[in-house]
Each structure stands twice: as structure tokens, then as C-alpha cells.
Amino acid sequence: MVMTVDVYGEIRKLYNTGMSKRAIAKKLGVSRNTVDKYCAGDAVPWERRDYTRAPTVISVEVISFIKKCLEQDAIEGVRKQKHTAKRIYERLVEECGFKGGESTIRRKVRLLRERTPEAFIPLEYDPGEALQIDWGEAIVYLRGKKHKVQLFCARLCQSEAPIVFAFERQNAESFLEGLCRAFAYFRGVTRRVLFDNAKIAVKEGFGAHAVVQKRYSVLAAHYGFETVFCNPASGNEKGLVEGLVGWCRRNILVPIPRVESLAELDGLLLQRCAKYLGHTVRGKKASVGDLLRHEREALLPLPGYPFDTSRSVQSRVDSYSTVRFDTNNYSVPVAHCGHEVSVKGYGNEVKIYYRGDEIAAHTRCYEKQQSIYDLVHYLPLLERKPRSLLNAKPVRNNLPPEMLSWLCKLSVKEVMAVLRLCADMGINTVNNARKNGIPLHMLKVDSPGPAQIHDRIVVKPTDLGVYDRILERGVAL
Predict the structure, then answer these.
(1) 1, 34 Cβ separation under 8 angstroms
(2) pTM of the entire predicted model
(3) 419-466 pLDDT, tens digit each
(4) In 3-state terms, the chain is what percent helix, strand and coil (to 5)?
(5) Quick check: is 449 in a domain?
(6) Residue 89: domain span
(7) Rounded to the nearest 5°, which phi and psi values hold at 7?
(8) At a CB cut-off of 8 Å and minimum separation 6, what does 133 contact?
(9) CA–CA separation, 367 vs 357, rounded Å?
(10) Do residues 232 and 348 both lie within one domain?
């Protein structure tokens, strides 16, 4: 019989009137044991006691064996090859002659694996005190193909204002560039920067014992902030930016964006981060944007000299008008063949300089043994050597196959005119015009035309008689 509150109440009332337990049981139709249990109010029906009895087959030796199995898993660190409760039971039977049941071992293993959740101390930061940074990965459609990008995430600790940038790789150039761009976005520098122990910034050690990479230490000295590295497997020490990585993937990159370049993706990320400034974080009295405006007043000023985040090398332009960076070749204008140039590799770009002037810029390629040609760089040479037009790599590597097939039907002069048009207006514009049947001669590049003089300048005639008067004075003397 299930004891209800009503029956319990009747037992208590009748017992308090002096009725015997036997009479109460007979009147209510319950057992005398039930009346004996509840009559004095020592037990209540809405609370159930745990009557689980510890199994007698679980000895100290059995518990020790189970713990050794779990400790061995932790030492090995192989996630997909750990002891299951079933495997531990089998080993107990084979190695220790265990006589109990498998379910008994399952319950004990589950209890030993349970861990008390770690408690954390809530933190509070002063305006301008700290910035948390971290990396994350995401998938986008880049020029129609699925592509993995690296997200550099930064978040101010007091206002919780975020900013995210997209890079091809998690390398030193991208890391330094992302940090400098974050400071520029927030319009100031925090006194501390919290980061994990990635090899990008840490040469060896971890946490308080980390040895900083030289280029990162130079950047920290230039911007005047203190570096704080988290302990291993301690994401809670930079929980704000850890949450930003997941928030970015769920709220900005769903559905998966389709972009033509990482610059376009950066624009999308910037737009959504700016929108977040209108959000009010739970527990805060003002919006993120209002707190950011207040925190900017407490930030250290940006240095006047811009920090060069690139990895620079000196290289000589070869006879194919290319320079080598990492394992790839990048083109420069043919007029610079044989010259010594500076090649600067940034996170997503490669820029080439000659005597301080930028002469070429390319999207950085992270594949191996590739050649990246800009068609514009080779137009002067193609004009002098027109017979190589359709076999030239700068032409073949830049134009789509259907456009190359179409050019085969044209004269050399016409092909050269199309290439000039591609250089002026873009290959996609010219190719789309061809597909849509638009005559190419109608695609004209807007030119500024001759300069127009609105205010006529009046030039007075020169008085040449002054020379005669000078000579006359000389004779008189």
C-alpha cells in the first residue's frame, strides 16, 4: 500500500485521541506495522530513505584494482583506448578471481569516476586593466569552396567588448598582426594581455614560468603591456574570450558564410562585433558599447610608430620577374628584374618593396612550391614578345579555361587588347561581358581627361629695357 498524506493524517489524529494501534489499523485498513511507524510522527510518508546496502563483494583489494585501472588510463592519455566498466570486470574475474556480478562493478566504477565540479572565483577587472586573446577555427565557403580559417579573438575584460579577425594560419605574423589590429580597434592598450601557452608567443615553459618569444616580447615592450600566460588546461583563466570563440561560431558563422576573400569575411565579423556593442551583459548596469566608451578613457595610448608585424627577407628578383618567400614565388613588375627587394610576409598578404616603395602585393599562399603571378606585372613584356601570349603562365594561371579557349580564336593584337582590358577592369568583368555578349570595345576605362583651367593666369610681358639701363649705368661709372 502506498502511504498517502490523508491516511498519515488520520493515523496521527486517532493516535492522539488515545485509540490503540490495533484499533487504528482495523479502522483504516492498514497494517499494525504501518501504524506503529507513523503514529508518533517519527517518520513521514513524503520522505524516502535510501536503503541501498553496500555490496559485501566490493573489498579494499577490488577498489584498489579499479583505481589502478583508472590511473593507468590517465597516464596513457589515449582517449579512445580506456578501460570500460565491462573490461575492468573481466580483468577482475581473470586476474583476481572476483565472484560478484558485473552490475556491481559498473556501479562502483561510475562512483569512482565521478568528480566534484571545480569551483571558480568570480573575477572583476578595472577599466583598461586587461585584454584576453585566443584562437579558434571555423569553416567558411571561400570562393565557392569549403575552407578552414583561423579566428583571432580578443575581448576587453571590463567592458567585455569583442573583436574577431580571420587569418589563414595561426603563425607569428598573424598573431602579432591580430593583436596590433585589436589595439587599434579599441583605440588603446590594456596594461595586461592574457593568453595561453601557444608556441606562437611562448618559447618554453608555461604559466608564470613561460619564456616569451623574442618578437612577442619586442611587441609587448613597444606597446607597454605586461604579458600574462595561463596555466595548461586552464581555459577558465581566460573564460571571457573562450566564450567569444564559441559565440562567434554560433552567431556569426551560422549559416556558413560565402565570401570571396578573407577581407570580406573580416567585414562581416566587424559588423557583428559592432552590433554586439548594443547588448547588455547579465549583471552589468550598462550596454557593452557604453562600457567600452568609458573603458577607452582608461586605456594606454597607442604608440606613434607603427609596429611592423611582418616577417621580412631580402631577395633578388629572378629572370622570371619573381621573388621567393617561404617555398613560393611571387611576381613583381618586369622592370625590377635583377633588383634586390624586400619581401614582407603578413598573416594574409605578401608585400614587396623596392627602395622603400611598394611595388607588388599578393594574397599569401600557404601551399608548397607554388608560383603566384599578377598579369599586370607582365603586360610590358608580353607586348614585346607577343608570340608567347597563350603559353605564358601569367596568362594561363589567371584566366579561366573557357576564356583561354576563346582567346585562341583571336589575333595576337586582339588578345593583347583583351589582356590590357583585363588589367584595367578585372578579369571577371571582362569574362562576364563576353558571356553576356557585350562587345568588349564598349568596356571603357574612365579616364580623367585633360586638365581644365578655370582661372586664367595672366602673364605680364617682360621689360627687356632694364638690361640696357644697367649697361648705361655701367658706362657712366
Answers:
(1) yes
(2) 0.68
(3) 988 888 888 888 888 888 877 666 654 444 444 444 455 556 666 666
(4) 45, 15, 40
(5) no
(6) 60-113
(7) -65, -40
(8) 152, 153, 154, 155, 178, 179, 182, 193, 194, 195, 238, 241
(9) 27
(10) no
